[in-house]
Give the backbone structure.
Amino acid sequence: MFSEQSGAFLVGLSGVVYLGDGALSEAVESVNRLSERDKELRLLTNDPRFQRQTIANRLRKRRIDAEEDEIITSGWATANHLGQQDVTTLLERENYSLDD
């Protein structure tokens, strides 16, 4: 079985685990099964609107036991990346000024 060959999984959320407000039952079962087998999970979304804790709470309401640190949103990834950079240098490299 594929899940036995790997210790970590990246799982898309929208359209994979849920559609709109409804969870896809097979996906819920699969994610929970991976978690029960102590597989490392990262739940991904390209929706930057919500904080990771909000998404974790919504997943729990859909019967997926998700922790905030397992969720990666595009907004969080961007902020995390910029937090590791010298933003002023990045902006100047692209000819932007903080004075504009």
In short: The chain has a mean pLDDT of 90. The two ends are 56 Å apart (CA to CA). The longest helix spans residues 25-36. The chain has four helices and five strands.
